[in-house]
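=== Discrete structure encoding ===
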Amino acid sequence: MAPETLYASNGDVSIAYETFGDPAAGEPLLLMTGLDFQMVWWPDDFCGQLAARGFSVVRYDNRDAGLSTHFSSARRESPWRALLGLTRPTYSAFDLLDDALAVMDAVGWKSAHVMGASMGAGLAQSLAAAHPDRVRSLISCVGMPADSSPVRLLTYLRFGVFLKLRKIKPAASRDGAVDNLVLIYRAISSPAYPFPEQWARTVAGISYDRSPPDPTSTQRQLAAGRACKLPPLSAISAPTLVIAGEADPIVKLKGGQDTARRIAGSVFVSYPGMGHNLPEELWPDVIDRIVAVAGLA
């Protein structure tokens, strides 16, 4: 049975979220998702296994994704221009952080353990640096240092996968759009592990039905990070776990390594054959490490 979708408010912005476990009883854990991805890409079973280990899990849609408030742009611009700060921002990363805090407030959490993947890793890092009283521990997954300059960020990226993604043509139908989402997920997935074809196709369909892809949302989410100066990672005092995939087709291994180096006392782990996702075969070890950094072991 799918969890109920609830909504938090940050001013005029509505943020959709779902819970696994009792938010009032378990150890609070907030999951922050990546660029363009909806919260349903955090697998239900992964969330359920975390709940079984004592967490109350909340996942949510960033603004401009899924069932949360969407914005619009006068024209479609290159994501690279947005990444370099050359696109007029619609909102800032601080607005995205306030969305996360609004979700926490809605479920009654004064603080929580925070796990972010990809862009969500950068948001989670920034939340821990800017609001240390709200973050109990930080888990940064397949990300890079959020406080890097735009030029520095480019040095962490592998560009081959973007050439592959450019070949994916816009779809004219639901089936075509679902096929495209599966192709995108396959391109970033872990090469040493079986591709979860059935799960990816099911979630791609759910994702499309919740909110069809918006080709302009990428530029707005990317531009948000360049619209403000984020606090340095050295300000993070929360216990931190940094997770990286050694076969990540998007983020080089040094993206995770440098993140860990900048956060005092952090624990770094990399997995051979892991890409820009968390393959199910690694969940037991990953969850054990999350439990440990959260102090539940």
Remarks:
- The two ends are 29 Å apart (CA to CA).
- The chain has one domain: 6-156+214-293.
